Amino acid sequence: MASKSIPTQLIYLIAGVLIGLVAGYGVFSITAPQPRPGEVPTGEGRVFTIGFTLPLSGELSSIGKIWEKVVRLAIEDLNNEVKAFGLNITFNYEILDDETKEEKALQNVQTFAQKGIKVVIGPAASSQVKVVKAFADENKIVIISPSSTAPTLALKGDFIFRTVGSDAGQAKALATLAHQEGSRKVIVFHRNDEYGRAFADFFINYFKDLGGTAVSQPYQTGLADYAAEVSALAGRVQSEGFEAVVLVAFDTDGANILSHAAESAILSRVRWFISEGPHGASELLTQSVGEFAAKVKLYGTRPLFIANPLYIELKERFKEMFGLELAVFCENLYDAVKLAGWAIIRAGSYDGEAIAKALVEVAKTYYGPSGWTAFDETGDKAQQDYGVWAIVKTAEGKYEFRDVGVYERGSIVFIEVAYK
Amino acid sequence: MLPQVLHRAYLRCPKMPQVSWDVLSSLTVMVVHYSFLYMIFAMPLTLSYRTTKVINFVHSNFITYGAYVAILLNGLYGNRNMLLAMASAFAIVGGIAVLNNIAVFEPLSRRGAKPVALMISSMGLWIFYKYLLYTIIDLATHFSRVNFVSYPKIVYEWIPSVSLDSVRLSSSFIATSLSAAAMIVGLYVLLEKTNLGRAMRAVSDNPILSEISGIPKRTVINLTWLIAGGIAGVGGVLWTSYAGAITPEAGDSMILQVFTVGFIGGLTSLTRTCIGAVLIASIENYGITLLNQFFRVETSYKPFLTFVTLITTLIVSPPLGAGGGLPYRLFRRVGKSA
Fold first, then answer.
1. pTM (2 d.p.)
2. Which phi and psi angles does B311 have, rounded to 5°?
3. Which residue in B311, B320, B317 sits closest to B330, CA to CA?
4. Residue A221's closest chain B neighbor by CA?
5. Strand partners, B179
6. What mean pLDDT is predicted for residues B283-303?
7. Which pLDDT does position A207 carry in this prediction?
8. Which residues of B fall within a CB distance of 8 Å from A236?
């Protein structure tokens, strides 16, 4: 008898607990106050939280750490602006580290979704955006990436927005730069990821259209050192007679590659052209890389509305507040925060679909440090200008990044002589 | 020079793929450089395992912390003296290794924790130290306004670079070669000629018997951790003179190579660990460059080559005698069928 009664009691106990849970949840759902997800009502007004998934560790951590400070500055500015308009609204932010990893970025977006947050800024890398896309579309989470540029992610009707133009444009600018500088046979040394592969494909196509020859040489990402890859590159450059190397890299790998290339006699004899990734990385401002840049007349392209007073103002304020230079895409991140805030206000309801629609409208009339932010039909920055950067020696004998040219109507116009 | 003569003779062979002397010589220097670096990174791993029986994942933190001791000294105080950086890294990283043992491994061992439990605890420490470093760097960046998250190569003073004919040996190469030689000689003298070394070997061979013989096992293990952590930290300092950009992920990015070298050494033999270092350096550098040059194999396959070596090592000659390795299993099968 005893052996039969124990399971029966257990079943009653489990059933009781389940009924209690269901009843308790029902009562709580009816009686508890109903704050909108991601929005916290306070005595002082409405508070919205914007989620950020940033690369605070991992491969892009050097820029991620700088972006973290840009977020603070942008949120502060956004709140001041909102108050100036007499609105009783405050924006908070929550930053999660995605370790520059795809799956971690997805986890972060899922965490934000569980908290009811409908607007997430980041992730940084195109490979990460690709991974979070399906979840964001399914759950109507507005994703605004300030730095993903892979043309393969320029898709209509999704919830992915990018406050930077796709690399289809930059690849064209870089191909024009290399061709205009006299290179006809180039090797594209690129990251073997979404960003690097897409950039290389577009570059090669444009360069061929211009009448040149280009081949690709991918390298594995996330390594501690790229000496062997640089050595292999030197071998190919010499044996196949390439006139220039086009490097498509992030900051840390780019700096590593250039420091090894600076020690190679073969690679010091050809021209070098670089994507926007390594721009702003302090590791490039060493004597050896600076001398190498002058020797090979190194030029890079980057998304930039040159001589934008708002960008210059942001740069100076940032330097004053944190003592650091702006890293790559800081201006795009700053604008992403402002756009997100005003889109939430304009949407009228805290709903992903409404915010996405409002975001497009807000962007049409917003002008910030990254320029005019209007989106095209795929959710990418519609009007993207490109500048040409170089590593230049200053009067004090140090090295600095300088914007020395612009891409305009299909050709590069230099506004300053970088190398004598 | 003889190598150049041989190279010229090779180039005369009509059907052989052509590699220029510039590429070949710089590649060879790189292989030697990497061999020394991997020796300095991996030998302390072997040394610590054979005495303490802990598969220590914190080892990658040791390398990173060593690098960051040099970086913080350089960024905050302008230090370019490599010996000072090495001494500081040895003391700090060696101290961390001893602290790990006293605070984590020793208490767990006393409670009867198995090697797997110790390995898992070392994984926990690995994550803890990784994020502790990010915190330290954040604070240093905040107060000094220097970006420590990604730091350029440090050019140390007093270390010359040497040019031999057309081959240039960088100051980093000179420093790494001298350090590796000093480490090998130092470890040989320590293990073969001193009482401490004999005690370390005794603890490694038979811990129970050594304790009965009156060897202070606890002191020997702590000293082993100090030396192992210290050498790995010195390796980190050397890395700052070589790599173009150093990040808090530096040690983690090398974990595959360092453990593969250690596994080739069976985590017990220092000589085999040295051979492993040369093997991995050759496979990674000669292998991928020549495969790329001759067969257009993409350089992104480099980690794959290391991984294949790791898998092969684990199957043919696994460390710790697990399963006895492929030869043993084959012999056993033959013996059984007989």
1. 0.83
2. -60, -45
3. B317
4. B300
5. none
6. 87
7. 97
8. 292-293
Distance CA A369, CA A365 (A): 14
How close A354 gets to chain B, by Cα (Å)? 38
Q: What are the structural domains of chain A?
A: 40-164+329-372 (3.40.50.2300), 168-304+386-414 (3.40.50.2300)
User: Helix, strand, or coil here: A8?
Assistant: helix
Q: For residue B96, what are the contacts with CB-CB under 8 A and spacing of at least 6?
A: B58, B61, B62, B65, B129, B229
User: Which site among A219, A245, A252 would you substitute to test the B interface, given the most B Cβ atoms closer than 10 Å to its Cβ?
Assistant: A252
The two tokens of residue A179 are 């061709």
Q: Both tokens of residue A361?
A: 């409208």
Give which of B145, B169, B247, B306 to mutate to test A binding, by max A Cβ within 10 Å. B247
Please give the pLDDT value at position A2: 44
Query: β-pairing, B245-246 with B151-152?
Result: antiparallel
Query: Counting every residue, how long is chain B?
Result: 338
> Structural domains in chain B?
2-337 (1.10.3470)
Q: What pLDDT is attached to residue A229?
A: 92
Q: Which residues 6+ apart lie within 8 Å of B194 measured at CB?
A: none
- How far is B18 from chain A, CA to nearest CA, in Å? 8
- Judging by DSSP bridges, how do beta strands A367-368 and A371-372 pair with one another? antiparallel
Dist CA B200 CA A338 (whole Å): 63
Residue carrying structure tokens 């040690």: B251
Q: Largest alpha-carbon pair distance within chain A?
A: 99
CA atoms within 13 A on the CB side of A383: 13
How much is the pLDDT for A159? 96
Which residue, A166, A404, A394, A393, is CA-closest to A307? A404
Block means of pLDDT (10 residues each) for chain A, length 420 residues?
54 70 61 52 77 91 90 96 94 94 95 95 94 95 94 90 92 96 97 92 96 95 90 91 96 92 93 93 89 96 87 94 88 96 94 96 95 94 92 92 91 90
Q: Is the pLDDT of residue B323 over 50?
A: no
Write out the two tokens for A101. 């990893």
Residue B219's pLDDT band, with cuts at 50, 70 and 90, is very high
What the block records as the tokens of A252 is: 């840390």
Q: Nearest CA to A363 among A354, A352, A373, A348?
A: A373
* A positions 183-212 inside 8 Å of B (CB): 192
Question: Rounded CA gap, A333 and B33, in Å?
Answer: 41
Query: What is the per-residue pLDDT across B112-167, written as a single tens digit (0 to 9) for each?
Result: 998 899 999 999 999 999 999 999 998 998 888 888 888 989 999 988 888 887 78
Contacts of residue B242, Cβ cutoff 8 Å, sequence gap at least 6: A225, B33, B37, B153, B170, B172, B176
Angle at A245 between CA A241 and CA A247, to 5 degrees: 155
Complex ipTM over 0.90: no
- What is the bridge-based pairing of β-strands A213-219 and A119-121? unpaired
- What CA–CA distance (Å, rounded) separates A33 from A49? 19
Mean pLDDT of all residues in chain B?
Answer: 88
Angle B237-B238-B243 from CA coordinates, rounded to 5° = 105
Q: What is the least distance, in Å, from the CA of B22 to any CA of chain A?
A: 8
